[in-house]
Write the structure tokens for this entry.
Amino acid sequence: MRTTYAGVIGCNMSEDFFHLLSTNIVENYHWKKVFNCGDSAPIKHKEIQTEVVTNVGSILEDNDITVVFLSNDYLHMAPQFINAGKCVRTVQ
């Protein structure tokens, strides 16, 4: 199984989101960085070892991150990530 380093940008990312994608049998997501926009509690889950960042640029500039999950509120950022060579997936 291949490990894919991922970034997450969105305020409503629940443990269910991470658990569902962590059980993906094709990709083994390593949640490297999660952007916390400030009005949500930091994500805490014993299986999720991630850095909570307050700057989206930290995810954009991280060469290890190859896929970024964007919530609907952040879709306007998709072109930036695509131009940086990252795959973009959207989540509600």
